[in-house]
Design brief:
67 residues, mainly beta, five-stranded antiparallel sheet
């Protein structure tokens, strides 16, 4: 679910810095905490929403295959 036009917790995104697909798990003082859609639960951060491209808002469900 986007907030103020920016990706937010639960949204699926592509981190344009790393090229990895992720889900936003938290936002702490403007820093986005990301985890991969599949695989081990190793998190990383994105300094701002400018580096995130929304691929599926939370409202569309947790399965990107359903889009």
């Amino acid at each position: 679910m986007t907030r103020n036009g920016k990706p937010w917790v639960g949204d699926h995104v592509t981190d344009t810095t790393t090229g990895r697909q992720a889900v936003i798990t938290d936002v702490r003082q403007g820093v986005y905490v990301l985890r991969p859609l599949r695989g081990p639960v190793l998190t990383w951060t994105a300094a701002s929403a400018e580096h995130l491209a929304l691929t599926a808002p939370r409202e569309q469900g947790q399965n990107p295959q359903e889009r």
